[in-house]
């Protein structure tokens, strides 16, 4: 091999190969069979990226907030509430790819469900301070603060959305989603100044309004106590 | 291995404590944000705990009512949440009950309750310790704030705004900016807020045109937040003066700014404003002057010797403090005088100790480890006072915003839950809780105000406000407050 490292062919590769042929996909795309899979599969699907607590994550912004690959992340987000097996992840990833690139009619139930709901509701995952996740459906136009309250997620809203406090501080866990949001106003930034555990992708939950592009977004609730980081947080494996 | 063991242990502890958990009585002293957030966290953490909140005033909510500026109604929305907590069937409010011999003493509370959480904040002021501090016309910003917010203790304060055209505010934190804004803001705008009637009347007749905000350090160290600064700079038709030479940054300043998002944004606001303003005020225009690098040396008496007529300021320069890495202001021996007829000292609040409570006079707080009150200097010589906790300003000093108390309360309640699980809060005798408190109040003839009494005050104030076109017309008289509450 010119690359000088072993390539292990797995069932996933075969599935991809097979599907690739079915829809006449060129095999030789840049991150194709040889280079891409051995890197992408373990990172994206086999091992879920360890969920760091936001306060710890400030120092590790790169590890948490920058996805390895846009598309892969979208898919990772979309099915984050289900137990993702190796094949399921691979297949879904591929189907997502198909749906978007070739308009193929081949589709799974999961994917169809997702596309129908996007017109009205989007999926948002809240990750609380203990790393527990909750996936909720949020109607387009609703703020994350309202959505959290409707779903019994512990997000404070002391000023009830009037941009006079920082208690509904959330951290957008993926910088790509963060970039899809309107820039914060001066007033919002003034409040974020005072937020605990501020990160570069922090927002006020009351100012993040659901829109279709945000489907699959993950929001972390910041550290609850000042001494949290000092106590030493051990991320829970899922 | 360890996690299983740990879980097993806490399960056992929990099952023990659940034997008596229907009897768990908590008393919170003080009904400000720290007190209410504590009650809320106790309710979520302990399914069967009862919480009694006592306050020396007939009205709840502490500084949300008497501290937050009247032109910040959004900040006061948090009382909705506190009212929901008070509406919990496990919660009771006892207003007009002070901690001490006139109401209920700390030792009595500790006998009655499994847990006592002190959340009574900081009701006094730090002093400068410079000559002339007790001259007429020199007030603490807290007193002035209580006065315009209708606190019943400061209703009768002889605040005179008619005999001078200049006021000096010492300090550049948010409270300093609040009082300066109230002095400078058009009274037509204030009339639509819940500002106390007596304060509005005085401000409408005020002759004060110039306010000086004096800080020991520079614009890179100013303690205010961007929101407050933006707001005061935005006052209609106000001339703002910032000395441009004060904006020159040292290397250390640059580093400080780089490390603090908020300081950086505050500095940018100063710089932007300094670059855009005119050199002189138009005649009759109200003026705000930021005076940096000056510290008060003494207050100058008027001819009568009774009233303040100015402040002598010493120029300072910044010196790096080896230990903390922060820059401190040191005097340079150069002085200048600033003429004024009123001084508001906004250099910090101070907590007051009560009998039987460990207190750190130097820091002005109750010594504690994560909210557990300790006797002696933590951590080496700390003896924990079982069942006694502290939260809010009394625990960490008078800084932070309302939300800080949320995290503060969470920490204290976490300590309570830990101690309860460990079985540290089990006492031999049965705690009487609310029943015992009511008995003591009856014996002492204390006429307490329940939450329903506050609700009567609340509706009465709103009703009176409606007639005047303001959200609320505050009742500022003790007797009247009690009368309305008991009606």
Automatic annotation (TrEMBL), chain A:
PROSITE patterns: 2FE2S_FER_2 (PS51085), ADX (PS00814). Residues 1-20 form the signal peptide. Its cofactor is [2Fe-2S] cluster. GO terms for molecular function: 2 iron, 2 sulfur cluster binding; electron transfer activity; metal ion binding. Pfam families: Fer2. The keyword Cell membrane does not apply. Keywords: 2Fe-2S, Iron, Iron-sulfur, Metal-binding, Signal. Residues 122-225 form the 2Fe-2S ferredoxin-type domain. SUPFAM superfamilies: 2Fe-2S ferredoxin-like. One of its GO terms (biological process) is P450-containing electron transport chain. One of its GO terms (cellular component) is mitochondrion. CDD domains: fer2 (cd00207). PANTHER family: ADRENODOXIN-LIKE PROTEIN 1, MITOCHONDRIAL-RELATED, FERREDOXIN/ADRENODOXIN. This is LOW QUALITY PROTEIN: adrenodoxin-like protein 2, mitochondrial. It comes from Dioscorea cayennensis subsp. rotundata (White Guinea yam).
Automatic annotation (TrEMBL), chain B:
Residues 24-202 form the FAD/NAD(P)-binding domain. SUPFAM superfamilies: Nucleotide-binding domain. Gene3D superfamilies: FAD/NAD(P)-binding domain, NAD(P)-binding Rossmann-like Domain. The keyword Manganese does not apply. It catalyses: 2 reduced [adrenodoxin] + NADP(+) + H(+) = 2 oxidized [adrenodoxin] + NADPH. Its cofactor is FAD. It is an enzyme of class 1 (oxidoreductase). It is found in: Mitochondrion. PANTHER family: GLUTAMATE SYNTHASE 1 [NADH], CHLOROPLASTIC-LIKE (PTHR48467:SF1). This is NADPH:adrenodoxin oxidoreductase, mitochondrial. The gene is LOC120251137.
């Amino acid at each position: 091999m010119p690359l000088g490292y072993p390539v292990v062919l797995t069932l996933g590769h075969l599935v991809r190969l097979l599907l690739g042929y079915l829809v006449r996909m060129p095999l030789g795309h840049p991150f194709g069979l040889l280079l891409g899979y051995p890197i992408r599969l373990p990172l994206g699907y086999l091992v879920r990226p360890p969920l760091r607590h936001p306060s710890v994550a400030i120092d590790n912004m790169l590890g948490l907030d920058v996805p390895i690959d846009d598309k892969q992340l979208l898919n990772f987000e979309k099915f984050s509430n289900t137990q993702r097996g190796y094949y399921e992840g691979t297949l879904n990833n591929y189907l997502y790819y198909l749906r978007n690139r070739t308009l193929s009619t081949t589709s799974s139930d999961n994917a169809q469900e997702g596309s129908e709901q996007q017109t009205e509701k989007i999926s948002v995952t809240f990750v609380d301070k203990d790393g527990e996740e909750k996936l909720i459906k949020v109607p387009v136009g609703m703020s994350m603060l309202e959505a959290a309250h409707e779903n019994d997620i512990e997000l404070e809203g002391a000023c009830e959305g009037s941009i006079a406090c920082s208690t509904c501080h959330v951290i957008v866990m993926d910088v790509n989603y963060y970039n899809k949001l309107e820039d914060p106003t001066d007033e919002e930034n003034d409040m974020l100044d005072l937020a605990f555990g501020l990160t570069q992708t922090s927002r006020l939950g009351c100012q993040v309004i659901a829109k279709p592009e945000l489907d699959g977004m993950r929001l972390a609730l910041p550290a609850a106590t000042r001494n949290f980081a000092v106590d030493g947080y051990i991320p829970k494996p899922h | 291995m360890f996690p299983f063991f740990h879980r097993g242990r806490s399960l056992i502890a929990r099952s023990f404590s659940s034997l008596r958990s229907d009897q768990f009585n908590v008393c919170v002293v003080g009904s400000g944000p720290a007190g209410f957030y504590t009650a809320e966290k106790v309710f979520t953490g302990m399914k069967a705990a009862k919480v009694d909140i006592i306050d020396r005033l007939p009205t709840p909510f502490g500084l949300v009512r008497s501290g937050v500026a009247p032109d910040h109604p959004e900040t006061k929305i948090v009382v909705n949440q506190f009212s929901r907590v008070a509406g919990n069937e496990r919660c009771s409010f006892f207003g007009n009950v002070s901690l001490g011999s006139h109401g209920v003493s700390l030792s009595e509370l500790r006998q009655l309750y499994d847990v006592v959480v002190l959340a009574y904040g900081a009701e006094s002021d730090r002093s400068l310790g410079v000559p002339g501090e007790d001259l007429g016309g020199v007030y603490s910003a807290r007193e002035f704030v209580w006065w315009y917010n209708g606190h019943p203790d400061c209703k009768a304060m002889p605040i005179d705004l008619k005999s001078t055209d200049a006021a000096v505010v010492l300090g550049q934190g948010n409270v300093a900016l609040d009082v300066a804004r109230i002095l400078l803001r058009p009274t037509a705008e204030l009339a639509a807020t819940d500002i106390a009637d007596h304060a509005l009347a005085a401000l409408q007749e005020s002759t004060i045109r110039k306010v000086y905000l004096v800080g020991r350090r520079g614009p890179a160290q100013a303690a205010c937040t961007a929101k407050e600064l933006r707001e005061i700079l935005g006052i209609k038709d106000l001339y703002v003066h910032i000395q441009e030479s004060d904006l020159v940054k040292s290397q250390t300043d640059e580093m400080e700014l780089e490390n603090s998002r908020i300081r950086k944004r505050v500095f940018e606001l100063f710089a932007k404003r300094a670059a855009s303003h005119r050199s002189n005020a138009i005649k009759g225009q109200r003026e705000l002057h930021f005076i940096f690098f000056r510290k008060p040396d003494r207050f100058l008496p008027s001819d009568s010797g009774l009233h303040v007529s100015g402040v002598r300021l010493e120029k300072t320069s910044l010196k790096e403090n080896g230990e903390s890495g922060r820059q401190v202001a040191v005097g340079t021996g150069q002085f200048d005088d600033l003429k004024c007829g009123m001084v508001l000292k906004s250099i910090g609040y101070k907590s007051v100790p009560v009998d039987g409570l460990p207190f750190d006079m130097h820091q002005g707080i109750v010594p504690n480890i994560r909210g557990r009150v300790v006797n002696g200097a933590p951590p080496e010589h700390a003896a924990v006072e079982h069942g006694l906790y502290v939260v809010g300003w009394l625990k960490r000093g008078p800084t932070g915003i309302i939300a800080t108390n949320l995290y503060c309360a969470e920490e204290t309640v976490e300590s309570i839950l830990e101690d309860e699980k460990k079985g540290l809060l089990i006492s031999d005798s049965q705690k009487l809780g609310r029943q015992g408190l009511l008995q003591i109040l009856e014996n002492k003839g204390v006429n307490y105000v329940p939450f329903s009494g506050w609700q009567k005050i609340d509706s009465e104030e709103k009703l009176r406000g409606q007639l005047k076109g303001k959200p609320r017309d505050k009742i500022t008289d003790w007797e009247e407050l009690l009368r309305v509450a008991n009606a």
